[in-house]
UniProtKB/TrEMBL annotation:
The keyword Protease applies. This is Peptidase A1 domain-containing protein. It comes from Saponaria officinalis. PANTHER family: ASPARTIC PROTEINASE CDR1-LIKE, OS07G0603500 PROTEIN-RELATED. The keyword Ubl conjugation does not apply. Keywords: Aspartyl protease, Glycoprotein, Hydrolase, Protease, Signal. It comes from the Eukaryota.
Length: 451
């Protein structure tokens, strides 16, 4: 028996259909050394600039008002990239063996797509594009399918999908195939048939960050936002519109800074849990009512946090696809001033020279008896009085440099009016639960490292 056939039969033995709701998805940061996606020889400045670029691009990806948007040469260059901080490995299709590519995890999109055979133009990809014609369970989506949206638009005789993005886009046809996900209770791999996703045929200016050329291992995007073709909605019986995750600090030694997204019944949270309101149509918007530094309210125009549903140029969104939190300049500057005032009033420290991509840095580090300020986000639970506080401590707000001889505030400024993003750096060591169908968001501090 050939090695390929043996692998196939082993996979079939694992891919068992299950009636349980214990669905999970492993996610790994793109800069994990175990993935070899981001080059290991990057300098400190290059690595953190790349991570900052992800946040900047994520912010622009929210906007619906690209016409008339004035970009610097630097900004126009980063728009050639597709950005996201976490990747996962999907497994789908049937035939000689399932297709198992790495894809970006995107909580800001409801679309899942991969590059398929027959693409022109294509982005370079190590390994193969998805050979949909070899999958026995694959079917192109008809124009009459309820997920053919916008309706009656066709590409090569099937339902068309198109994702434009300033200077890049992917266009192709929609189809359905069997997907396989790990059952977090049994450890088995369960099969979910007839999942809709896109085949990228015309892929214009698609570049996945450090994955240039034939070494690129990222084949597409897995969308986890709410929308008609959302994975969460397609598997609503299993997900119940709920998912949870807990992002760890950076890994050390042989550990991988991976995390697991749990869906449905396994999306649980416990302890001193706090609950706030969330708007979950397309993106995950939280209702932020203010920011404090060391207990002092920062003077911020709160209109920057109000949801602009049509243009999405304002609002406050939780987005693990952004590494550092991104704030518009008119919000960032008062926060920066409040943090600088804390260090000057308490220790007489003045900011040192900036270290790109950070512009609030110090040449000394708190020692015995000294501390970082706590930055508090004041959220709202609609229909209830008062505020619900999330405390961001030193590990959430500051990046140490040179073995703790220097540090910088790890927040990135963007253009006014926004949007504002709560990025993965600020989310680490919190457990979050998204209850999209009920418009609720839960959080609790928790140590998140997985073995």
């Amino acid at each position: 028996m050939t090695k390929t056939l043996l692998t196939y039969f082993l996979l079939i033995a694992l891919f068992l259909i299950s009636n349980t709701n214990e669905l999970s998805l492993k996610i790994i940061p793109i800069d994990s050394p175990h993935l070899n996606i981001v080059p290991r020889n990057l300098t400190f400045k290059e690595r953190h600039q790349l991570l900052a670029n992800i946040s900047i691009l994520r912010g622009y990806s929210y906007r619906n008002d690209f016409e008339g948007l004035h970009l610097s040469l630097y900004e126009s260059q980063i728009f050639k990239f597709k950005a996201g901080y976490y990747v996962t490995k999907l497994v789908f299709g049937s035939g000689q063996q399932p297709y198992a590519p790495y894809v970006l995890v995107d909580t800001g999109s409801d679309e899942t797509w991969v590059q398929c055979e027959g693409c022109n133009p294509c982005f370079e990809l190590r390994g193969n594009n998805f050979a949909y014609h070899l999958s026995r369970s694959y079917r192109r989506m008809s124009l009459d399918d309820n997920l053919c949206l916008p309706p009656r638009q066709q590409f090569e005789g099937a339902c068309r999908f198109h994702i434009p993005y300033i200077s890049s886009s992917t266009t192709g046809f929609l189809g359905r195939d069997s997907f396989f996900y790990k059952n977090s209770l049994t450890g088995n791999i369960d099969m979910y048939p007839n999942i809709a996703f896109g085949c990228g045929i015309e892929n214009v200016n698609i570049v996945f960050w450090g994955n240039r050329g034939p070494q690129n291992v990222i084949a597409g995007v897995h969308g986890l936002a709410m929308g008609p073709r959302s994975f969460i909605n397609q598997l609503s019986a299993q997900t119940q519109g709920r998912f949870s995750y807990c992002l760890p600090s950076a890994a050390g030694g042989n550990r991988v800074a991976q995390s697991t997204i749990y869906f449905g019944d396994e999306a649980q949270i416990s302890g001193d849990v706090k609950m706030i309101s969330m708007y979950a149509m397309g993106r995950y918007h939280l209702y932020l009512g203010g920011i404090s530094v060391d207990g002092e309210r920062v003077d911020i125009d709160l209109s920057f946090f109000m949801l602009d549903e049509r243009r999405r140029t304002r609002g406050f969104f939780v987005d693990s696809g952004a590494h550092y939190s991104l704030l518009p300049r008119s919000v960032y500057d008062p926060l920066k001033m409040a943090v600088a005032t804390y260090f000057f009033n308490n220790y007489g420290w003045r900011p040192g020279s900036s270290v790109n991509p950070f512009d609030l840095c110090y040449a000394e580090y708190p020692s015995d008896g000294q501390s970082f300020p706590i930055v508090t986000l004041h959220f709202l639970l609609l229909g209830h009085s008062g505020e619900v506080d999330m405390d961001l401590r030193s590990e959430h707000m500051f990046q140490s440099l040179n073995n703790r001889r220097r540090f910088c505030m790890a927040v990135i400024s963007g253009n006014d009016p926004g949007p504002s993003l709560l990025g993965a750096f600020q989310q680490k060591n919190f457990k979050f639960l998204f209850d999209a169908y009920n418009g609720l968001f839960y959080f609790v501090p928790q140590f998140c490292q997985e073995n």
